[in-house]
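Schema walk-through. Below, the input block comes first and the output block second. Nothing else is stored per chain. Lengths vary across the set, and this one has 512 residues.
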Amino acid sequence: MQVMNTVEIIEKLANEDLPPTTMNARRLFGSFSSLLKLPPSSRLPNELLSEIFLLSTQDTEDRVEMVLTPVILSQVSTRWRNVAISTGGLWNTIIITFPTSHQQLSRAITWLKRSRSAPLDILLDFRDPSWDWDLAESLHAFRWQDMEAILRLLMTHVHRWKRFELLTDTWAPIFTFLSYTRRANFRSLESLSLHRCNAFFASKGATFAPVEMRKPVQLFGGHVAERLRRVTLTGVHVDWAASPLYNLTKLEFRYLASDVTPSMGEFSSMLAECRHLRHLTIIGRGPRIDSTPTSSPSTNAGQQERSLLSVIELPHVTEFVFGFSDTDYAVKLLARLSFPAIRKFTLEGLLDLDPLALLDLDATPILELLTSHNPSSKPTRSFPFPLSRIHSLKLVAIDADTPTFLRFFNDLHELAYLGLYKTKDDAIKALAQPSSESSSSVPPCPTLTRLECHDINAMQLLDLMRARSKLSQPVHVSIRSHELSAEHRSELSDAGVQILHDCAEDISKPQH
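--- output ---
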């Protein structure tokens, strides 16, 4: 049997009169209709039944479930099938994954037709679990030609794209997407996520590859997508000097190679156009911090100097996620950013990128920077990062000694939630010690009510709970069950610890 590639499958499907996905629904259920009592739903008008169907898909973010839901609904009865097929919003989730198949593409074409004019939620995942990262990218089974064929299928509906997510192992499919969408009209697009899933590029000293495809491409050809509010770029660089990113509320930079990141001036200009930004993520590398920043010919020397020395203020950002593989770079970047409204903060050491670089991930300089300008937990002009306003804090793979953690925790006066993942036991020790700001023996973070721990010494946790028993605020602890012996469970329970649930998933594991 001859195996067709993606291009051949789409060409074949374009000439087929596709049958309904559930063409046997009537045969399966019709013979039993006379035996069933008429249900209340049969008395509902079609319009109301259609609305109920749509509501049934709003309780989940699981795209696979959203694809299956209309199939299930359409198999209940002939009437439900007719109503479901005429309800475009039920069929607006398009999923295509590697390896592409006739069945997948047939389903995608059927869903595109049935979705009518409904906004589309598109997920394209072309990662190969068996891909050998040591091979040349040109040997990957999913080629740029395959990406081109799928884009030709989807681009006729580009005006309906509402959420678009693309995941690949290699650069060629991303480059194809950037090239094919330069003249598209994204009038409905609200969320864009592009992932080249190779975290290696965020390791210290790593540069972009393949070198011959390093030249940046303008996102959307430089045209602004008016409704776009959320953007995630994982290992994906664009022409930062001609960025069309405006009015975003969420912006994420993940695992960018150091030689394709925006300059500080480009980064600052981009953020200035996102005046209502609420969430910022930088994992690995953000903007380049050069002594001689790049600039356009129209930028004079005075503007260059101000760009180099000025602090970028983000007045509305309430959540900041920062992962670092280079401590020196992290300190320089954090010293340039201002978060006067911050409420949620995640700090992560990227240990999994390069095991040989473990000694370079000492977080002490970062924690010292965060505390050095917070003697009274008030923002200063030199470093406006008000720790006292942080309500939720996650520390992932953070290495520092107990005194450093204690000084850091002393400034967290409103902290309610703390997550510690693969973080040194010194953090737990610091939480059990008396605060240096109090004459009593009260530990720091007096408002802490919830603590989630992974890979934490159980005896240290027990000492913490005993030390904090003097506080009126109870601390609820969530910890993996396999990390606790029966004896430790009993002792923690006696100390007032409430095991809320077992944490099955390690959030500190990189997702891309």
